[in-house]
């Protein structure tokens, strides 16, 4: 009996790991307990012994003696991209740029590569651009079109990881661009390019390369139908920066925001204009999110949202019509559908708005996406104007968060929002109660404080009542 127990314990316990996030368990389960992915748990081997300590080759040093100069960001000469990154690219950093097909990822990174090679930001002016989707001739044609040509910008069309690493050894660049991580595969890993195992191996190899050689790496990543980054979730955890490319494919405006950044803020946004001659940063994009019409129309309201430290003036449009369906339709574009549904419910309950049997359509102008709660009040006033067929007075902006009890809550950066509205010529602002007492109000703008949804609708749409 004792002999049997000894033999059983020496075999060890099987280990199962999630291929998406790396979560481990002692037995197989159909659904990952960490990321909730189905069918992603697979056996990876047996655990028979603990890892033994190894000799230390690089001893730990006091934190004050660590050389921080190697973590200094170097500008890319693309001001809007530097704003998102937190000042530029850090040597050894790996940046994942994700977005829908055709949104402009390759154009932006080729522009960054060309500027880095010309300006000497990349150390010895050597930049390597590896394309797994296009030939070198196609990349050169785009570089000529967007004026990204540089003598020390090297192009390669490779899909094999080993060959890509060989190109890096030969060129010895200070900046590496890989377009895209889903098209590169390793012969050491089974499966086609783009599957979970291949993406993990390629990303891990490039990250190890970046840290060992101290070069900045820009990776292009594909996205799925729901907008999330394709491939294993662990990819986003491994890289240093994750940048999301946003925008309407039918519009020239593009927004770049960092959703993860180990070297800078994650609340900044960069604005770009994508055209036939390339992609250009927009230092003052506020006017792009306004319709530009000369007459006021019922169902529209302008708000001021904060993207990082940058205030953006954006117009919200609403259309409410009688529904012919048993279940009224709710459609949104550029707005959070859940928050719009909440605002509709608050209007119905707290302001007695006849919205129950009507279709409601809401959209933003210019393809911008509003996720900040400060846009709630503008959505409320746009809906109220569409229901009553009464436009807001000319030159009106509104911002504030709407609560389920019908109250208007204050938001951060109110005076920065008012200053931006006054700069663009707006003369009237509907804001939460308490803004006037928090600081000076810019000249030329009349501030109307409101405390509830019912008060906001009444005073904004009936200023003389």
Automatic annotation (TrEMBL):
Sites where the protein binds ATP: 99-106
Highest taxon of the lineage: Bacteria
Pfam families listed in its UniProt record: AAA_25, ChlI, Zn_ribbon_LapB
Sorted UniProt keywords: ATP-binding, DNA damage, DNA repair, DNA-binding, Hydrolase, Metal-binding, Nucleotide-binding, Stress response, Zinc, Zinc-finger
CDD domains listed in its UniProt record: RadA_SMS_N
Region (Lon-protease-like): 359-465
GO biological process: recombinational repair
Gene Ontology terms for molecular function: ATP binding; ATP-dependent DNA damage sensor activity; damaged DNA binding; hydrolase activity; zinc ion binding
A GO CC term assigned to this protein in UniProt: cytosol
Location of the motif RadA KNRFG motif: 260-264
Domain named RecA family profile: residues: 70-223
InterPro entries attached to this UniProt entry: AAA+_ATPase (IPR003593), DNA_repair_RadA (IPR004504), P-loop_NTPase (IPR027417), RecA_ATP-bd (IPR020588), Ribosomal_Su5_D2-typ_SF (IPR020568), Ribsml_uS5_D2-typ_fold_subgr (IPR014721), Rubredoxin_2 (IPR041166)
PANTHER family linked: DNA REPAIR PROTEIN RADA, DNA REPAIR PROTEIN RADA-LIKE PROTEIN
HAMAP family assigned: RadA_bact (MF_01498)
Stated role: DNA-dependent ATPase involved in processing of recombination intermediates, plays a role in repairing DNA breaks. Stimulates the branch migration of RecA-mediated strand transfer reactions, allowing the 3' invading strand to extend heteroduplex DNA faster. Binds ssDNA in the presence of ADP but not other nucleotides, has ATPase activity that is stimulated by ssDNA and various branched DNA structures, but inhibited by SSB. Does not have RecA's homology-searching function.
Domain notes: The middle region has homology to RecA with ATPase motifs including the RadA KNRFG motif, while the C-terminus is homologous to Lon protease.
Entry similarity comment: Belongs to the RecA family. RadA subfamily.
Protein name from the UniProt record: DNA repair protein RadA
Organism this protein belongs to: Phycicoccus avicenniae
Gene symbol of the encoding locus: radA
